[in-house]
Amino acid sequence: MFLKVKVLFKYHVNNIANGIDKILPNFGSMPILNKIKIKKTSKIRALVPIMPKIKNSLIIFLDGIFTISFLENIFFYLTQIITRLSVYFFLNLTSKKIFEKLFFIAHIYNMNLKKVIVLGNLGYIGPILVQYLRSLSKNLEIIGYDTGFFQGCLLNPEHNYDRYLSQQIYGDIRLFNNKILENTDAIICLAAISNDPIGDIYEKQTTDINAKSSFDLAKAAKRAGVKKFIYASSCSVYGVSNNDAKNESAELNPLTAYSRSKISCEKRLKELINNDFSVTCLRFATACGYSPRLRLDLVLNDFVANALINKKIELLSDGSAWRPIIDVNDMSRSIVWALNRDVGNTPFIALNIGKDDWNFTIKDLAESVKNIIPNVNLTFANNSLPDKRSYKVDFSLFKSLAPNHQPIKKLSETIKDIADGISNSNFRTKDFRKSHLVRLNTLNYLKKHNLINSNLEWIK
Ligand SMILES: NC(=O)c1ccc[n+]([C@@H]2O[C@H](COP(=O)([O-])OP(=O)(O)OC[C@H]3O[C@@H](n4cnc5c(N)ncnc54)[C@H](O)[C@@H]3O)[C@@H](O)[C@H]2O)c1
């Protein structure tokens, strides 16, 4: 007799991107798996990435990919029961934390959506999100829509990281064809001019893309019957704070074109909601972590790259400034929460996304990197002063609303992921701040070579 189950094996998985290819040879070495015959392996690719790391554990999913043929084994009976209950089974349940992860997985796997559009999927967060969505549902139609500014900014250009999509559409959200919206359940808007330095130079375009066009697109989506609009906002809308962590009712103080564009869009999106159209604005902490389209203009990523490539971390301030950060995988988990949230009486919500104990000082971050990457020299600029851009954020609302979708990454894991990602690539550019992995450099390159104009439009 055969019982079909999906098996996700998370043993010695260091590099998510390499996924199952590296794992499969290890199957034989696990005693419990000796009797599992792998009939089909291709589909498992979609399941492997971004699942929480559970050391020495085995996760069994429902409905079949693998076939196990050991009748006598107690394990067989357990999997039978679990299949019927529509939940997942973990071996080596060693802590409460793992149990929580179990419920998190069980919850999101029931995602009840047919088609989502991810705007801005070819950036830093997009590939991780798409891979994650695919791991949760093989049937979900995932449409990527992006103008492709950073499509080539891959650490490993030979890998096809966008294979998890159902379709890639290239286009500018300023010229969006509303036909694409047909039969769509939800839109996730990541498309944006995504940092302060670019926003300072391209202020008008930042407003046009991040605020006006994103809002226009949401309006068109509502007309087309889309139910949910998820907008990637930013904690930078609070500006600076002293030592008090900003919650959602704190005064807004956007200091840059970028953060002004985010808050302007949030305000306008609020006007659109009704019983059939909800808006979730996710005010993300500063992102960090490994992505195939790694960005090195983000604080932790910069430290890891410098530590790994140049064996040094240089602080331009005294390091006392506070910065909330969040791993890209945890951002993706929060987006899945937003997709599935019961909008009930709150069709509009804007909330901080991160974790209270991931408010770090810059010095904490630098020291954490130094503790993990050997032989690194940490230096402070001469007469270094406090960085003016310091803020702490309160994430308690997110914790209370989404207890099963809280960030789960450890800082050490995030640092190792970035370091492994760089080590496993050919990227060794010492002057990495001048490389294509810094967003502004890539835009400058495209402009210099007459590929885009000063309005950030492709030149045909
Ligand atoms: N990375 C962070 O620290 C962070 C923090 C908070 C919020 N966010 C927000 O999350 C979202 C994604 O961030 P990211 O780090 O992946 O940024 P990113 O710059 O890597 O990706 C943004 C993507 O949007 C696309 N895009 C830009 N303008 C477009 C247009 N007019 N039409 C179509 N596509 C367009 C780009 O080509 C790019 O692929 C952004 O909205 C950003 O503001 C990011």
Describe this structure in words.
By secondary structure, the protein is of the alpha/beta class. The N and C termini lie far apart (61 Å). The chain is built from 13 helices and 16 strands. It has two domains: 93 residues, no CATH class; 334 residues, NAD(P)-binding Rossmann-like Domain (Rossmann fold), CATH 3.40.50.720. The strands form four sheets. It has a seven-stranded parallel sheet with strand order 7-6-5-8-9-10-14, with helices on both faces. Strands 1, 2, 3 and 4 form a four-stranded antiparallel sheet that branches. Strands 11-13-15 form a three-stranded mixed sheet. Nicotinamide-adenine-dinucleotide (NAD) binds next to strand 9 and strand 11.
Task: Quickly list its features.
16 strands; 18% strand; 2 domains; 7-stranded parallel sheet; 4-stranded antiparallel sheet; 13 helices; alpha/beta; Rossmann fold; 460 residues
Strand content: 15-25%
Structural category: alpha/beta
Radius of gyration: 22 Å
Q: What's the tally of helices?
A: 13
Shape: globular
**What are the bound molecules?**
nicotinamide-adenine-dinucleotide
Global mean pLDDT: 81
Fourth-level CATH superfamily of the largest domain? NAD(P)-binding Rossmann-like Domain
Give the strand order, joined by hyphens, for the main sheet.
7-6-5-8-9-10-14
Low-confidence stretches: 1-73, 83-110
Distance between the termini: 61 Å
Helical proportion, percent range: 25-40%
Beta strand count: 16
**Major sheet description:** 7 strands, parallel
Order of SSEs? EHEEHEHEHEEEHHEHEEHEEHEEHEHHH
Name of the CATH first level of the largest domain: Alpha Beta
CATH topology name of the largest domain: Rossmann fold
What is the quaternary state of this protein?
A: single chain
Question: How many separate structural domains?
Answer: 2
